What does this fold into?
Amino acid sequence: MNITLKQCNLEDLHKLQEISYETFNETFKDQNSPESMKAYLEKAFNVKQLEKELSNTSSQFYFVFYSNEVAGYLKINKNDAQTEKMGEESVEIERIYIKKKFQKHGLGKYMITKAIELARKENKKKIWLGVWEKNENAIGFYKKMGFVQTGKHAFYMGDEEQTDFIMSKLLI
It folds into this structure.
């Protein structure tokens, strides 16, 4: 198993957009209306938005490679880039997506472990994420990785309000 992680930069913008569309669509298209999916994809993953996120020094994107092929990506936020006010001692995993054909190969565990390593390197005390309340597979995976539900917040898919569970893990 050859798994590697590479930090993304502005040169990776179009590849990031492509994998963002692909993985989000694969993950959520069957549970959401085409209109809501289209609205969300166009808002969250347009070139200007991704360029802004890639340029934010408090956010980092990483491609995960499986046998030298881009298999997914990870986005982590710290400080004021976090989507909820969790303080400077926290790091958020905002996005963790793997292409369907690469799922069940240990990539999710690898990316979570790397995110925790990055957080610890910066002396952060907590890592957290939001996960859709209906994404039972992901919730089960995060629980196995030591995350516990600590709250919830609204997530908008187009105009449709959904609920994300906030799951956290202490790093001390």
